[in-house]
């Protein structure tokens, strides 16, 4: 029997014609859970959702950034016995916000919640969030620590102060009436999400700030109090670099229409590189260890290495190079920046010869070099196609 007739006869027997799962049983609510090293928490989270959402048609999509602790495999083990559970596993990338976006895009449910995978968010308010959205009066329902009845749990004074400061800053781009824009726990109507989706910066941790700042019209929101629980298993991924990404996000929302925030970050770090250069040059040349030209060459190389590593951690944290990939990354970075330097000197020299004055000539050369270095290294060194 040919393949085609096998298929036809199976179809005739109803094997292909009737997919498993009944039409009409699609989820009305999807929970998107970003994870990185949460192996010890995922099974418990699914149980909590099962209890909290009893009687509803729901599904959960874990978006895992290839966690070394094999979180994705742990989810698959559950998913084999529970079709409501799925995993999107991303390779070679990191980032809480971008993970949430991809999780939402991987579902069809008309209501979507975003929730941490470490049991710190209280699943029992999901029903209230859903009811609020179904009432038709709101686009987004936010789990809030900063309205009456909500609490940050056992946070120390330092983390509280940082959170409050970050919240105050967020009001540059989100409505003043929103008490907890830093929340990573909310439910949104799909249409409202899709209206903002293409404007999202997807940088860093603060997806809700991004959503509010990216929406073409004001989002109608309600805050529902909950108490932030303590983490029992695994550890927080928040660190000092998250603060830098947060500033990048705010910058992108404020000026990104005209200048990409990553370019500003790149240029700022380039500015720091000038100080590194001068410090190395001074110590080599002034101490008479080297003549000027070799000292200048060494200082240039050191500044490039410095710029590469700082950009790798700050500007390109989400696609950061690690391990042996650092070597070709550094090589392509130094090559691109050398070409940038030649272009810089060439253009500055040309303008200078055409009587543009030495300051404008130098600045034009620097601007051209910076734009070239940014564009070339974002493409070749960090492999960003956009
Ligand atoms: N896919 C992916 N990629 N997930 C990540 C990444 C990443 O790079 N970094 C963290 N996560 C996952 C964690 O595994 C966890 O499920 C969730 O995102 C939150 O990360 P935590 O490291 O536990 O953050 P937190 O508890 O300090 O802060 C969270 O709660 C705050 C209060 O709601 C975050 O959600 C904050 O944005 C939020 O303000
Ligand atoms: Mn957490």
Number of helices: 13
Q: In terms of per-residue confidence, which ranges show pLDDT below 50 for 5 or more consecutive residues?
A: 10-18
Straight-line N-to-C gap: 49 Å
| Overall pLDDT | 91
Rounded to an integer in angstroms, the radius of gyration calculated over CA atoms is 26 Å
Q: Helix-strand pattern, N to C? A: HEHEHEHEHEHEHHEHHHHH
Explain what the structure shows.
With 386 residues, the chain is an alpha/beta fold. Helix content is 51%, strand content 10%. A seven-stranded mixed beta sheet has the order 3-2-1-4-6-5-7, with helices on both faces. Strand 1, helix 2 (39-52) and strand 2 form a beta-alpha-beta unit. The chain is elongated, with a radius of gyration of 26 Å. The site of manganese (II) ion has 5 residues, from loops.
Task: Summarize the model shown.
The protein is of the alpha/beta class.
Structural key phrases:
alpha/beta; binds manganese (II) ion; 10% strand; 51% helix; single chain; elongated; binds guanosine-5'-diphosphate-alpha-D-mannose; 7 strands
List the helices and strands and how they pair.
Elements: H1 3-13, E1 29-35, H2 39-52, E2 58-64, H3 71-79, E3 85-89, H4 96-105, E4 111-114, H5 126-134, E5 140-144, H6 157-170, E6 186-189, H7 190-197, H8 207-214, E7 221-225, H9 240-255, H10 261-286, H11 292-313, H12 326-353, H13 358-380
Parallel strand pairs: 1-2, 1-4, 2-3, 5-7
Antiparallel strand pairs: 4-6, 5-6
Manganese (II) ion is lined by residues 116, 118, 120, 231, 236.
